[in-house]
Amino acid sequence: MRLGRQRVSVAERFNEKTQRSETGCWLWTGAVGPSGYGRIAVGGAGNGHTGAHRVSYELNVGPIPEGVFVLHHCDNRRCVRPDHLFLGSHQDNVRDMVEKGRNHRPAILDISGQRFGRLVAIEPVATAHHGATWRCTCDCGAETTTRVSRLRGGITKSCGCLKREVLEANRRSRSAPPHEVSR
Ligand SMILES: [Zn+2]
Ligand SMILES: [Zn+2]
Q1: Ligand 2 centre from 142 Cα, in Å?
Q2: Which domains does the chain have, with CATH numbers?
Q3: CB proximity list for 7: less than 8 A, separation 6 or greater
Q4: Residue 41 C-alpha to ligand 1 middle, in angstroms?
Q5: pLDDT of the residue at 35
Q6: Would you give the end-to-end CA distance of the chain in angstroms?
Q7: Number of Cβ atoms within 10 Å of the Cβ of 106
Q8: pLDDT of residue 5
Q9: Assign residue 72 a region: left if phi > 0, alpha if psi is -120 to 50, beta otherwise?
Q10: How far is the CA of 123 from the centre of ligand 1 (A)?
Q11: How far is 133 from 154, CA to CA, in rounded Å?
Q12: Within a 10 A sphere around the Cβ of 139, how many other Cβ atoms?
């Protein structure tokens, strides 16, 4: 890092680059990283930058334990106002994002109890942007999981037993007299 930077303390530079907005947030006017968080040079290892909101927390509230995230009450990543910040784990960060809808989790189409061929949808077990994966019971008694798009598109109609039966029938039709498969 450049020596000149050390003459101005982190706290001074922090205050210079902080602007109080009408919404109550303190907006970081310095550099912003690709994830949308303000960046501030603090020196040290690597490129010596860290999140401006983290610096705000340490300057105004106290030290951040290792591995702990500084999260925003206001959902404004550029905000560095200390009382808009709180500590949380990575899990808290993910849960917070889900609750605030930042990751645009799609609403689950409810197909529970609906029949698709031999399958009856029971419950969703996973979600993704292309649709939920559902646990289904098959008429043969087995359970399987498949994507809602495959069920509704008629691509998946059984746990796999239907395909096995067709293959078995084809095998027998090649090796046995025709009347045995035309039951
Ligand atoms: Zn804020
Ligand atoms: Zn089956």
Answers
A1: 5
A2: 3-100 (3.90.75.20), 115-175 (no CATH)
A3: none
A4: 21
A5: 84
A6: 83
A7: 11
A8: 47
A9: beta
A10: 38
A11: 15
A12: 14
Task: Calculate how far, in angstroms, residue 87's C-alpha sits from the geometric centre of ligand 1.
Answer: 14
Of the listed ligands, the closest to the CA of 81 is 1
Q: What is the pTM of this model?
A: 0.50
pLDDT in tens, the chain (183 residues): 444 445 678 899 999 999 999 899 999 999 998 888 999 988 765 567 889 999 999 999 999 988 889 999 998 999 999 999 999 887 787 777 777 766 555 567 889 899 999 999 998 888 776 778 999 999 999 999 999 999 999 999 999 999 999 999 999 888 766 565 555
- How far is the C-alpha of 116 from the C-alpha of 150, rounded, in Å? 10
